[in-house]
Structures are given as structure tokens and as C-alpha cells.
Records
---
Amino acid sequence: MAKQQELAAGEHVRYIVTAEKKKDSFESLVMEHLRASGAYWGLTTLVLLHKLHAVDASEVVDWIMSCYHPESGGFGGNVGHDPHVLYTLSAVQVLCLFDRLDVLDADKVADYVTGLQNEDGSFSGDIWGEVDTRFSYISLCTLSLLHRLHKINVEKAVEYIVSCKNLDGGFGAMPGGESHAGQIFCCVGALAITGSLHHVDRDLLGWWLCERQCRDGGLNGRPEKLADVCYSWWVLSSLIMIDRVHWIDKEKLAKFILNCQDKENGGISDRPDNAVDIYHTYFGVAGLSLMEYPGVKPMDPAYALPLDVVNRIFLSKQQ
Ligand SMILES: CN(C(=O)[C@H](Cc1cnc[nH]1)NC(=O)OCc1ccccc1)[C@@H](Cc1ccccc1)C(=O)N[C@@H](Cc1c[nH]c2ccccc12)C(=O)NO
Ligand SMILES: [Zn+2]
């Protein structure tokens, strides 16, 4: 009988706290352009493991604000980098973790995102115009967290997402784009945030998603691909949002994630015996959170934030 694997929470916390400090490591250089997303991944993992106090809140908030572009209202992936919706969401999410949305000019940030909606309801990622359903999710999520969804045309945004639905029940990056678990998360998450999940065929999509579970218990992103820890989040959060999570074997999936840990030095990799990174450490812990793993805080599947953070934003009296 294989030894019962468990989550090396202490090691993962230490891995993240030291990675935050190491500026010149190979990984941090590769991730240089998306450092704001790296902060979101690392800090959200600390919150899930009850250890946000392990970092200096004001130091992080000051660094995030140094990525802000006051003239456009957007955030770049690092200091001095051009603004993009990807990093604007990551920055807003980090401020939510620390309950510091007060530092923002919320109308200015909302205007940046609003300015990227196109005639057909779709969203571009930045001023260069690339369109992807990923940016629909990111824009709707950002505006919702700032209580400013009323600034855009939500009906057109939903209409565009529905136009990206495929015959297999899944969604792609553009109309006619191939179904991919990451894009499905974006489209289902955006529909959930806008109260439009009635556009989803839950059984058809649920079937496509539960078929992502491989013999090794892990989930892949498309048919015939290898299982990868980060799909534990993209697939699982989508299954939860459409209430079909009981269609996969959660015990086998948890074992797959725990088997991808580096229990000595901390961190989680995409698959067993590969190099760990902050991205897969976050999506692995978030996946365990969605399966109510003991000692891990619950996550909101649509906002990709801890549930208590989402509740504080939407249920608090002072709006
Ligand atoms: C740029 N990225 C990717 O392309 C990863 C690469 C990968 C990891 N494992 C398998 N491939 N893939 C990825 O993010 O796919 C998820 C995805 C793709 C398209 C649409 C939606 C989700 C990763 C970084 C990375 C690169 C290489 C290795 C590990 C991490 C990345 O930054 N992904 C972004 C994509 C993204 C940004 N905002 C989003 C909002 C919703 C969904 C996805 C994103 C992310 O997850 N941010 O939180
Ligand atoms: Zn991955």
C-alpha cells in the first residue's frame, strides 16, 4: 500500500517566501514580465495555507502600486512594463487579499478596462488589440471586484462568449476556436460572474470536462494530452461552477497533486518528478482547496480568490 501522501504546507510556504525575495533566480527572470501574476499566485497560496502574515503587507502593496500607470489606469506585469488587463486583474486580486482596494482610483482602473471592450462585446488584452475569451473573463472579473460592471455592456460581453461555445459543449479563445480547459474556465467563470450560466449545457460540458481525468488521476487540458497539475484548477473550478464535480474521482486527483510535491525544498510541479514553480504550486494548492483538503482555506471557483476575501468584498455593508 503506497504511503499516505500529505501536503507539505510548511515547506511550500518557505519556498514561496524565499522565491519572493530571490530577484535574480532563473525562474524569477523567466517570470520577469509577469511578476504581478507571480505575486498573485504566491500570495494567494499563502492565504490558503493561513500564512499571509509571513510577508510585509505594505511592502507588497507599494510594489504592486509601482506597476500602476496613472495616465491609463492599467497595471504592467512589472515596474516600467506596459499596462495589460492580465496584470491589472492580478494587481486588483493582490489588493483584495490585503483588503487594500482603498489605495486604488477604482473609476480610473475601471475606465482602463472599459476602454478595451470592442463593438462585438469582446475584449482586447491591451491597446495592441489581441482578442481572447481569456480577456473577457479578466475584464468582467476585474470590474466585478471593483463594483463597476455597470460601466460596460454586459449583454454584449455575454453574447460574444456564447458565440465561442462549441458543439462539444466547451469553449475556445475565439468563435470556432478549439475547446481547451483554460478557455472553458474563462468562459464559464465569466458567465458565472454575470449570472448567465443558463447558456451552458451542463451535462454536455460536464462530460467533456470529466473526460479530462487520466489513468494517473490527474487532469489534462485537452483530449490525448498528459495530465498537468494546473488543470486541477481550470477543469475542477469549471466542474464546480456547473455542479458536476461528482463526475470525477477527487481522491485520485488529490493523490496526483500530492505526488507532484517537492517535500524537501517545497513547491509543486506540473507532473511528478518535474521542476517545481510558483504557478503550479498555486494551482495545486488551489485544486486541493476546491476539494476541501484539510488545513487549506476554501476558494471561490469563479473569482479565483479565497472565499472569505470574496465574501468581504460582496457582503460587506460599506459599499
Ligand atoms: C503564460 N502561462 C501559460 O501559458 C501557461 C503555461 C502552462 C502551464 N502549464 C501548462 N501550460 N498556460 C496557461 O496559463 O494556460 C491557462 C490558460 C490558457 C489560456 C486561457 C486560459 C487559461 C502562464 C505562466 C507560465 C508559463 C510557462 C510555464 C508555467 C506558467 C500564465 O501566466 N498563465 C496565466 C494565464 C492567465 C492569466 N490570467 C488569466 C485569467 C484566467 C485564465 C488564465 C489566465 C495565468 O494563469 N495567470 O494567472
Ligand atoms: Zn500546467
---
Amino acid sequence: MSQTISSLLGRGHQNNFKLTEKQKSIMIGSDDSCRKGFICSETYLAPFHCRIYLQHDKIHGWKTFIQEKAMNPQRYVTMVNKDRLKMRETRWLWDGEEVQIGRGDNLENLLSFVFQNDLVRGNKMKMIEVPKCLRERFNNCQDDIGFGAHSVIHRAFETKLGETRECVCKVVTLTKKVSKECFEKLCQEPKLLDSLNHSNIIKVLGYHIGNNPDRLLIWQEKMYCDLEKYFQREQIINPKKWYNISFQVLDALKYLHDKGIVHRDIKPENIMWTNTNFSVLKLIDFGLAKNYKNEIERDNEQVGTPLYIPPEIYRASFTEINDLYKPPVDIWAFGILSFRFLTGQNPFFEKEKVDINAVRDKVLKEGISKVPLMERRINERIIELIIEQLLDYDPKSRVTANEVMGILTNLQKLFE
Ligand SMILES: Nc1ncnc2c1ncn2[C@@H]1O[C@H](COP(=O)(O)OP(=O)(O)OP(=O)(O)O)[C@@H](O)[C@H]1O
């Protein structure tokens, strides 16, 4: 990466500042030494009020954090999206979030900034080639905003009826890593998505399969952030939020299952919030989805992500496996996701990425432990019972998306 820039843009005053790979951290406060860092001599800031810094990791690339530094957090406040940071608390800052700092007894006069995180490769936005027939409608930029096992997701723009809006372009290229067989299967994804219409399923805006074919381009609506990233920041999801997430995911699953489609890769990375409100989410990545009623689509391979694969698939022989890819597979995966989100723990392993054989042994030999929820409120007890049914070892008696939706609808009041 040639240049990484995160910036805080001040509201109503001149104090904008940037973090780069050279300048990875700044202190904000009223002490003289902070001025070098950037902000400001405002007297209502603590001498060392907060620190904003960049950190790199292999999964997310550059991330920006804010850390509360005031010695007296009762007197001084540091807030992210109006939520006050505790003493010494560190928070991962996301694009579009608002930072406010100042005195606790003068909340009317907080300094306010909007965080912008621009991962810029070079300074100019470079365009990548779009097939001639689609050039009027789509523009692709070179910056990539996501990576999958088979694809790169680029920033893009769609111009329709005179209006231009941001979208993304998923690019799959035939390579050593993506075999011809795999590529051909992935080409089914946009066709399948095109036939679906549900508010919690990603919409395809357009697609193009090259002539050879060796390249697949899928333009989709732009999402904000995936549930894995959200979970890593929140650590534990409370029952109310779980309810909100579950209702939407299960509604999308019910829709798919009624149509005879099984997603086969339900996991937090494949569920994304549409925007910074964290209210609406959508299922993405239908690369492994299939119509289980369609005999032509028979394949006898094990697919999915180890931690989310159910016992019947781990147990299945080569000839049985195709007939076992049915809706209960998605339900189990959603059960694992719920277990992780509500308890902060994996049912099988501490770490997310583990060897598939080790996970299989644990799933088959050890079974699921009881859901270790924190408190014993009535809604937690209900969630515990639901998770036990989502993680039923027998796919035939495992609860369906429709059944859980029924329970959740009846118990809405408990989660308000
Ligand atoms: N519509 C979108 N808007 C914003 N980011 C997206 C969008 N679609 C995908 N991404 C990002 O790109 C990542 C990879 O996308 P996707 O899962 O579709 O690719 P894939 O190659 O099928 O991945 P895998 O097979 O590893 O699950 C996602 O986890 C997400 O972070």
C-alpha cells in the first residue's frame, strides 16, 4: 500500500488532521506537546485527552482506534456516536462516525469531528476496464474494498437515469486458485441473485461473463460492514440486538428455503449492515448457494466454512452428501453464529480459524456445551432454548426458519 490516510474532519472549525503510515498516532489535548500532534489549545480539553492511532493487521489491513486518555473521565468526555468512552477505553473507529471531546459539564460545547477512513492507493482514483457494452452504466475503480477466497471486491459507480451512485463490483478471475469448474459454478451466483427479491438479500445491479469465459464481473449494491467486523468490535451482542439480527436473517432464510434454495455459507462475514445505523442487514455471497430440489445441480462435495458446517455434513459419505445439503444446514450455521454473538465464545474453539479436521472431531465427538449466557433474564432463557433447537444434532428435528420466526414474532415484546 503506497499511502494510507485516515482523517478527522472538524465541524465548524479548522482543525482537520490526518494519520498516515509515517504519522501513525496523534495525541489530542491542551498540553503543549499535543499541539505538535495537531489539535488544539482549547482549555476545556484535558492535557492529554485522547489518542487516535492506526494499527495494521493481516485480516483488516489498517484500522484506526481512539483511546480515552484523560485522567478524570468524569470531568472530561470522549464520545463516539454520542456513546461515552470509559476510562482508558479503546474503540475501533469506523468511517462516518462522529467523535466528540470536551468537558462533561459543558456538553453543549463539545468539539466535534467526523472520521473518514480512506484507504487510498496512490492519490488518484484509477479506473479499471469495464466491457464496452456496460461502460455507459458502470465505472470501476481500482481500490479494492474486500477480498474473498475467490474474488476481489472493487469500488464502483452506477449511472442510471442521469444519477450516479456508489456500488461495488465483485470480480472473479479464472486462475490457478479458481479452477475452471469452480469458476463455472461461481458464474451461477448473479443469475440466482437476479431471480431473488427480498429486502434482506443483496441486489445485483448487473453482471458480465467474459467471452472465453475467464472473468466474471458482478455489480452489487454497496454494503457498510459485515457482522464479523461488527462482532469483533462489540465483543458481545445483547439479546435485543440478537433479536433484530435474527429476525432479518431468518426472514431471508425462510424466503430462500421456501424457494428450494440453500445458501450453504451462512457466517458473519456473509451478512452485512447496509449503513452506519446498524439497523438493516443483507445476506451476501451466494457463490455456494444451490437449488436442492434441482437434480441437475447435484454435486457431491463438502462446501462451506469449517466452524459453521453441521454434523450431518461432517458425517456424510460421498454418495449421501448431496441429499443432505438442505435448509437445516443454514439453520445450524445460524445457531453457531448466535452462540458466538451472545456468549463471546465459540462452541468448539477459542479461535475462529482452525483446521477443518480438528473442528470435525470436536463437532462429532464432543457435541455442543450448554449456552453459557451471562444473565438469567427471561429473554436470555428463551434465546438459550432457541439456540439449543438451532443446534439440534438431528437435521430432521432441527427447528426451521419459519418456526423460529413464529416464536420471535410472538415474543417481540420481550425484546423491546
Ligand atoms: N456488496 C458489498 N459491499 C461492500 N463490501 C462487500 C460487498 N460484498 C462483499 N464485500 C466484502 O468483500 C468480502 C468478500 O466478498 P464475498 O464473500 O462475496 O467474496 P467470496 O470470494 O465469495 O468470498 P468467500 O468465498 O471467501 O466467502 C466480504 O466479506 C465483504 O467484506
---
Amino acid sequence: MPENPHHNSGSRSDHPVPVAMDDDAARHVLLSASADAAIDDLWGQQPNKIPDPFVWPHADALASSERELDAPVVDVGAAMRDAGDGEGMRRAAELVAAACASHGLFQVTGHGLDPALARAALDGAAGFFRLPLATKQRARRAPGNLTGFAAAHVDRFTSNLPWKETLSFAHRDHHRHVVVDYFTSVLGTDFKPLGDFFSDGCSIMRCNYYPACPEPERTLGTGPHCDPSALTLLLQDGDVDGLQVLAAGEWRPVRPRPGALVVNIGDTFMALSNGRYRSCLHRAVVHRERERRSLAFFLCPREDRVVRPPPRLLTAAGEHHEDIEEEDEQQQPRRYPDFTWAELAHFTQRHYRADARTLDAFACWLGAGAPTCAAATSSAACDESQADEAQGTF
Ligand SMILES: O=C(O)CCC(=O)C(=O)O
Ligand SMILES: [Fe+2]
């Protein structure tokens, strides 16, 4: 990822600070990043107990529902091959639009991703995570950065630690994007100005590794959050489930389907669609006996692109565009201010641990002139200060 003027500008130390904990094992491994040997053993250190910093509050670790999330599985290959009257594509677009407007998640098959390539990527990631921690730490993610190796317990966190390790890469995309083509086809030509919105974008590929956990019901692999990026493509490895979405007050599983890619809307797309499409609130749970892996591709615009919805979605209350035949109930007053991806990335890496309310907290932070997190969090919309826990979830 190229140098971002916002990145690495904070005063946060590169090293974990001593923290107060009542769990000896956790203290032992958390006090210093140089205690690699001890950290390496963390996941298996105590056969029956997780260290206290990994224990999540009951509200976040709320029990999961058995009911699978009601989300469409769209065969995009078949829809695109449908040379007839376009009915297949229209139907697929309707299903996707409905899912995006409700919880923000759908799955795609027939996408053309070579299964052998997907397997190789998952196996490559698995090989990395099997390396000794000291070796993995050579690729350590620097504070404020989005790329590199990260494990909360070797970084600066002190509470609500996710039970996982991650390895992230930047991916610069020089091509015109299928996402814009799709939304142009669904939402009409007013999305055309987005034509190059994602070109030159600096997206992120993240490998997630969730070790088996002795107390899975007391922790989370990834806490409840919305991805700040625009759109996420997720490949779940094998048949180990873990991804869950909050729908109708319940955490519902999104079980892996062979060959399917999960697609979810992120905060940037929610802002781009003026709230029409919901940023998906999701989390990942872990298992007692089984480890789990997933690969997430976070589609992001170029750092300096201004995130602003197309005019079609932005009619002020009471007005409507002349070129729109029927009254479009999707026209809403502007919900979020202009921002750049660099600003949102900076906010989630330095000031705020991505959660269900990132976008509102971010809007409030921008409104306050984005001076410091303390200023942002003193306002009602950002009432829970997370300044000490940034870079936790995304
Ligand atoms: O591993 C998963 O299923 C979800 C991961 C996730 O939400 C993320 O990496 O942002
Ligand atoms: Fe996520």
C-alpha cells in the first residue's frame, strides 16, 4: 500500500504496553512482543481455559441461532450466460438488491474463480499460520497500517481480544470494475459517474486463521462489526462454519457452500448508496475442536476518491428528479458527509475499532473536525470511547 499521509502519524507506541490483568498466563504472553516463545503457545497454553483478555462481554458473545441466514445464492455465471430476454440477470439483480437492502449479504456461485487457485491460496495461508510466531512477526502489521501479520495478543490490546491471527496484503486494481457495471445495470445510469470509482483502488486481501479454542462460547474469532471497505468477497475454507450475521435480533450462521463466495456490503458502499444498501453486521465464532480459515477480499476505492452518492439517490425531501418516471421512495436526504477512503481507513486504524456503528461515529468525528478521537467520542453519537482498542476488528 502506498504511503498514506494519515498512516503512522499517531503517537501510539509500536510496542505493547504493560497491562493490568488478573490472568497469569495472559500477563505472561501479553507483556512484551518479544516474548515470542510464550506467545506462540498462547492458543494451546491452557487446555481448558482462555486468558481473560479474550473473554467477550455477554452481549457481544450472544448465543447463535441454529437458523441459517436467509440470503440468496446467485449463480452469476448462469445469469450472465442467459442470452435470452435478460430475465435471468434481472431476477439475480432483484435478489441481490433485496438482500443488500435488508442485511447486506448474499452468496455467488458460477463466478469463474478456479477452484485449484482458491485451494492453493487457502493452503498457502494455512502454511503461513503454521510458521513459528517469531517468523510470522517479521511480517508484522505496523500500527495504523492495513497490511501485514496481526494477532491481537501480540499487539497493544487489553480486552475483547479476537481469537484469531490475520495476514493482509494490498492489491492495487487498475481495471474497470465489475461492481460498478453491476450497480449501473441495477440502479441505472446515474451510477455511471462511478465508472472509474474503483479503478486504481487499493484493496486488501486478508487471510484469517481461527485456532481451535477451549472456551468458544466465551470469546469470538471476530467481534460484531461492519467492514469499513466497500464490498467484501469471502471464501470460507472447508466445512467449518463460523461466519454469522445479525438479522431480526439473532446471530444467524452463513454456512460454507462448496465453491460459493460470500459477498457483503461494507460501510463505504452504504455511504455510496446513501444508506439504501445496508453494511452487513457480522461476526465470526470459533470452535472447541476445529480450527477455521477464511480469505476475505475487501474492495476499496483509491485513497483519495470522494465517497458521495450519485444524484439519483440524493433528492432532498419533497423534491424529485424529472427524469425519474415514478416516485422513487429511495430518494433520501443526504445521510453521510463526503469523505475519502483514506480518512475512513485512518479512523478505523487509529481511532475506532470497527463495529456496528463505525459509519455514524466516523460522520460525527468528521463533523467535529476530526481533531482527536477524544473530541469525537465526547459527542452522543460516539459515546463509547474505543480509542485504546483501535485496529482490532478490521
Ligand atoms: O472469517 C470470517 O468468516 C469473517 C471475517 C471477517 O469478518 C473479516 O475479516 O472482516
Ligand atoms: Fe468482516
